[in-house]
Amino acid sequence: MNMKLFFTKKFIRQYRKLPQQIQETTDKQLGLLLSNPEHPSLNVKKMQGLKEIWEARITSSYRCTFQKDDESYYLRNIGTHDILKKP
After folding, report:
1. N or C: which end of the chain has fewer CB within 10 A?
2. By the 8 A CB rule, do 54 and 64 touch?
3. Domain 4-79 fold
């Protein structure tokens, strides 16, 4: 199945503020999300207490949150661990 990525305006705004190296790592990790969502470096898991919102690891300090359906990932937020407090 060919999954697609969709980005919220908020995600794009947050992404643009990230350091260049984190942006490059994000691009790599999003490629993995599309090709192998179960890859261990992503550590994808459903967020506790929130329906239908998932998180994925970008680096040890950065995460992104998303929703998904059968065909798409809808990227919501990206940033340090703090974003997990307000998905």
Report:
1. N
2. no
3. YaeB-like fold (3.30.2310)
